[in-house]
Amino acid sequence: MAKSRMKIVTNFSQYPELKIDEQRLKECIRKHYSSIKSPIFFYIDKKLHLAHGLHRCISPKDYLRLPSIVSENIMDDVKKNKNHFHKISLSYYYIERAKNNCKDCKGWLIPKGFNYYHSYLMFVISHELQHAHQAERGIEYKIENWIQYAKDIDDHTPVEYDAEIASIVKGSKLIRSYCER
C-alpha cells in the first residue's frame, strides 16, 4: 500500500503580495515534518496582532461554517484522523512587517544567512508545526537536553521550549530546503 502524503491546504493565494511559494513550502514541510499525520490548514489571519502564529488541533464541529478550502480538500483525511486537523494561523501583520525587513524579533534565534523574511517565516511556521507534532506525538525536545539555549528562550514551559528548539533545529532545515532549490 502506498504511503499517503500529508494533506496541506492554505489561504496563501489570497495574499499574492506576500510572495509565498506555496508548493515549495508544502514540499519542505512534508520533508521535515513527516511525523505529522493529520491534515494541516494554514491560515493567514489579518486580525491576528497579538501573536506571530497560533496552532490549534480542531474538529470541523468547532466551526459554525467550515471554510470551503477545508471541506472541499481535506475532509476525507480529517475523517481518517479522529475527525481533527491542525489549523495554523499566521499573522498577516507580522509577516508583512518581516517582508518589509522590520525586524520585530530581536533576540530570537532566527536562522542567519538567508533573506530575513524567509527566515522569519520558516521560524514561525516551524514553531507552530512543532505544536502540531506535540498534539500527535508529545514533547520532542526536552529542556535538559537543550539547556544551552535556556538563556535565549523566555518561556520554559515544556511545550513552548520544545517549539522554540524545533524552530531553531527544524526551522534551519526548512529555510535551507525552501531557499536552496
Task: Considering the chains and any ligands shown, give keywords for the structure.
181 residues, alpha/beta, four-stranded mixed beta sheet, 41% helix
Task: Describe the protein.
It is a single chain. The chain is of the alpha/beta class. It contains six helices and four strands. The chain has helices at residues 22-32, 68-73, 75-80, 92-99, 116-137, 158-179; strands at 8-10, 40-45, 53-58, 85-91. A four-stranded mixed beta sheet has the order 1-2-4-3. Strand 1 (8-10), helix 1 and strand 2 form a beta-alpha-beta unit. Helix 1 packs across helix 6 (158-179) and helix 5 packs across helix 6 (158-179). The longest helix is centred in the C-terminal third of the chain and has 22 residues, at 116-137. It starts with 7 loop residues before the first strand and ends with a helix. The mean pLDDT is 89.
In short:
With 181 residues, the chain is an alpha/beta fold. The mean pLDDT is 89.
**Radius of gyration using CA atoms only:** 16 Å
In terms of quaternary structure, the protein is single chain
- How much of the polypeptide forms β-strand, as a percent range? 5-15%
Number of helices: 6
Number of strands: 4
Cα(first) to Cα(last) distance is 30 Å
Q: Give, in spatial order, the strands making up the sheet with the most strands.
A: 1-2-4-3
Helix proportion range: 40-55%
Secondary-structure content class: alpha/beta
Mean pLDDT across every amino acid position: 89
Major beta sheet, specifics?
Answer: 4 strands, mixed
Shape: globular
- The string of secondary-structure elements, in order, is EHEEHHEHHH
- Low-confidence parts, pLDDT < 50 over ≥5 residues? none
